[in-house]
Amino acid sequence: MTVSRYRPVAGTARYDRLADEMGQRLGRGINFGNALDVQREGERGFRLEEPHFDTVKKAGFDTIRLPVKWSAHTDETPPYAIDPEFFGRVDWAVDNALGRDLNVVLNVHHYDQFCDAPEEHMARFLALWRQIATRYADCSGRLYFELLNEPRDPMTAKPWNDVLPKALTAVRESNPSRFVIAGSAQANHIDALPELELPEDDRVIVMVHYYSPFEFTHQGADWLAGADRWLGTTWGGEADQYAVRRDLTKAAAWAKQQNRQLFVGEFGAYSKADMASRSRWTTFVRSEAERLDMSWAYWEFGSDFGAYDPQRNTWREPLRQALLGK
Questions:
Q1: Which residue, 110, 168, 257, 283, is most buried by CB atoms nearer than 10 A?
Q2: How far is CA 325 from the centre of its chain?
Q3: What are the residues whose beta carbons fall under 8 Å from the beta carbon of 283, sequence distance 6 or more?
């Protein structure tokens, strides 16, 4: 295993080269959420099809974040083999993206049992990553591995910090130089960044998710008890903008101090918010992230937060313009 023990200092030629390679190549992205990250693809009303990759490429995106619920397709006992048919489905998605010169962020998504009982599921989680990393070891550098989506309680910062070096070691056994993405605890919340402890590896990008204010972005969400009481919440005043700018600036300051690149791996507003507010919020979050040199991926393409309407085969134009500015 080859793991860099040197994290370059901001402003040096080595840091600038790595920063360009990490951040600028990820650029502007979109999540193919609610497809391969659910128990059975299609149960959320969306199934990936080949034309979706062309649609994303033609629109001008650089990156697809591909959330995958591996735990729904993996044996419960050693050696914790991943179902070959499902692996083939993920291969198909990765190949379609890489074949169009799109970056791919491939992750472990919705492994809830692991967050609930880290020690009990540690061997299975590491076995997942050894299989994933080995299978895609020969893929181009446009493929990025994201270790775990939204670690959450009871996996608080300390147990998550204990997991990180083990997971990275599992990846580095077969991928010594591939870029790896790791987020903070508390579901990748910005406020959890100060507690994040990363291995000394110069090819680790830090990810945050941004859904503030939650009462706006998740109003009416059918999986959240009481979310209907937020219906009608709008966004766009000076105080609203100040709060977003404050949050993202705080994250950027932490990243600068740590000499790390930041990736806003998810941000989006649920479909029950009014479109004018959704468009304003999305435009502002995206523009602030870019102002602060963060790459990003919108949540998500064609489901309940979707910027694209797969039934009509067309972009929801206010959201497309909010993301791409044209």
A1: 168
A2: 21
A3: 321, 322, 325
pLDDT for residue 14 is more than 70: no
Q: Which amino acid is at 190?
A: I
C-alpha dihedral sign at 206, 297, 31, 215:
positive
Residue 216, C-beta contacts closer than 8 angstroms, at least 6 positions apart: 230, 233, 234, 235, 269, 273, 277, 281
Distances (CA, A) of 181 to 112, 130, 149: 19, 16, 10
Give, in order, the Cα–Cα distances in Å from 306 to each of 63, 122, 246: 16, 33, 26
For the whole model, what pTM was predicted? 0.93
Q: Which pLDDT belongs to residue 223?
A: 94
* Whole-angstrom distance, CA of residue 244 vs CA of residue 238: 10
> 127-170 pLDDT, tens per residue?
999 999 999 999 999 999 999 999 999 999 999 999 999 999 99
- Helices 275-291 and 238-258: crossing angle, nearest 10°? 30
Domains and CATH numbers, the chain: 13-324 (3.20.20.80)
Give the whole-angstrom CA distance, residue 249 versus residue 289: 9
Please say if the pLDDT value at position 209 is more than 90.
Answer: yes
Residue 194 confidence (pLDDT) above 60:
yes
Q: Are 42 and 274 in contact (CB under 8 A)?
A: no
